[in-house]
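Hi, here's the filled form for the chain we discussed.

Project: internal
Contact: R.S.
Residues: 145
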Amino acid sequence: MLMRTDPFREFDRLTQQVFGAPGTWSRPTAMPMDAYRTGDEFVVHFDLPGIDPGAIDLDVERNVLTVKAERRPVERGESVEMQVAERPLGVFSRQLFLGDALDADRISAQYEQGVLTLRIPVAEKAKPRKIAIDAGSAEPKQIDA
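And the returned structure, exactly as it came back:
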């Protein structure tokens, strides 16, 4: 099972809107994601438009998957005067707590058209399986008292 917790995400978003430009706070900004199970794997999509694939880091430690990405400012000439700057810059981060039923050693990642897709297989030990029944002897055993 895939679990996520970030109780301060909405508070951070609101604080950034009220007090300053997004991406300027020391706490990394969360990134939007979708997650679902299909067959024997979980698929997670993170929206990371405009981020260089080399600026994305994936780490797994003790069943915690951390995704960090950095959107750097675009180089502009000295004569450029910004009129609107709404696209957040800086570090984006998200942590997913992977249950024991997932195989964290076989995670695969693909980045295409601004979307990072992770595929996390279900661990073999967590897949449903048939258990053989040993019929044994049909005669009841007698216990001496």
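Let me know if anything looks off before we file it.
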